């Protein structure tokens, strides 16, 4: 994490960096010498420090289309007309009801559907479109973070979250087709049960009975796959969704 940043360092824009998978991704790329520009609704958090982090944070409310447009202009200004090697769309929201339970298709307020889709679905494509020239200049890549909940009903993930992730998986294929001619690869990762601070009670039952490896994944294990997708190792991988769930989907 203390690798020096050079003038010719590759650049990553990452949404949702303050904890879990995002935090591990910051550490992985920073250790590789990348410049990391983070995006979140909150100010820069000292809980996730890295070299130059406070100067490379853009505060954007991804649920607000107007603020998102302003934020994209801010990111482009920070790039200074330079290239963008990777965009990782990691930020997402999964609202719970007043008891901490999942919102289903029947009881999710429509305003909540809109908020979830703005963050989880519309923001990723808006960021990619807004930064397309910079990504194309670098022959860069986009990684969308979907979820195992996008392909099956999950006991903890609400309907709005699950359908937004399913839509993001389909969007990844569409983007791979449309951005490919611009020299931009677009892929997705679909994590399962990852050991973060937001695990729900009852996860241990899923681990015991649904995951063949009988353990949670770690944020670092996810970050390693994100890193591979953003480097030359995966130079001919485009339009893929990689499942990172210990076999939970089989």
Descriptive report:
- The protein has 250 residues and is an alpha/beta fold.
- Helices cover 38% and strands 14% of the residues.
- The protein contains 7 helices and 7 strands; from the N terminus they run E-H-E-E-H-E-H-H-E-H-E-H-H-E.
- Strand 5 (141-145), helix 5 and strand 6 (185-191) form a beta-alpha-beta unit.
- Helix 2 runs parallel beside helix 3 and helix 3 packs parallel to helix 5.
- It starts with 10 loop residues before the first strand and ends in a 6-residue tail after the last strand.
- Strand line-up of the largest beta sheet: 3-2-1-4-5-6-7
Mean pLDDT: 89
* Global outline: globular
Task: Characterize the main sheet.
Answer: 7 strands, parallel
Q: Please estimate the helix content.
A: 25-40%
Tell me the β content: 5-15%
Unreliable stretches covering 5 or more consecutive residues: 1-6
Rg, nearest Å: 17 Å
**End-to-end separation:** 35 Å
Number of strands: 7
Secondary-structure element string: EHEEHEHHEHEHHE
Count of helical stretches? 7
Structural class: alpha/beta
Report a brief summary of the structure:
The chain has helices spanning 20-31, 65-79, 110-130, 132-138, 159-179, 203-210, 219-229, and strands at residues 11-15, 35-40, 57-59, 86-89, 141-145, 185-191, 241-244. By secondary structure, it is of the alpha/beta class.
